[in-house]
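Example 9 (inverse folding). The structure is encoded as follows.
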């Protein structure tokens, strides 16, 4: 009888709690297939205080892999909505992306850019150079 009770206590020992899985993180890569004559500066932010800057310095003829050289890659992101703005010369981009995959890719090109032009002119009265920004859609 004593042997049965001892066996019962050994087998009823609670199992340890499993270690919690680490929260998943994701990568977001911005790239381009067009040459805008310089480096594209990309700013990424969200309402939770995330605010980073990246640079696109290479033109790809086909879709790159997440994190390839010359792309603006933001690593270890938490899932959720992020906002971006980017600029290169007279081209600007802005928008939002919902990060839900291990690797999200966003292509910046002329068709999804806000193209800006600068117009300069002289006034007759004061010989002051004026710069006016015009948005083209």
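The amino acid assigned to each position is listed next.
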């Amino acid at each position: 009888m004593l042997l049965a009770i001892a066996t019962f206590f050994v087998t009823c020992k609670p199992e340890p709690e499993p270690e919690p899985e680490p929260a998943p993180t994701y990568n977001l890569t911005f790239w381009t297939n067009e040459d805008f004559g310089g480096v594209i500066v990309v700013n990424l932010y969200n309402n939770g205080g995330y605010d980073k800057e990246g640079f696109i310095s290479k033109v790809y003829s086909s879709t790159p892999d997440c994190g390839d050289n010359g792309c603006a890659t933001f690593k270890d992101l938490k899932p959720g909505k992020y906002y971006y703005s980017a600029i290169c010369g007279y081209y600007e981009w802005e928008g939002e992306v919902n990060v839900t995959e291990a690797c999200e890719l966003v292509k910046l090109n002329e068709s999804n850019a806000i193209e800006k032009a600068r117009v300069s002119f002289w006034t007759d009265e004061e010989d002051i150079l004026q710069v006016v920004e015009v948005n083209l859609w």
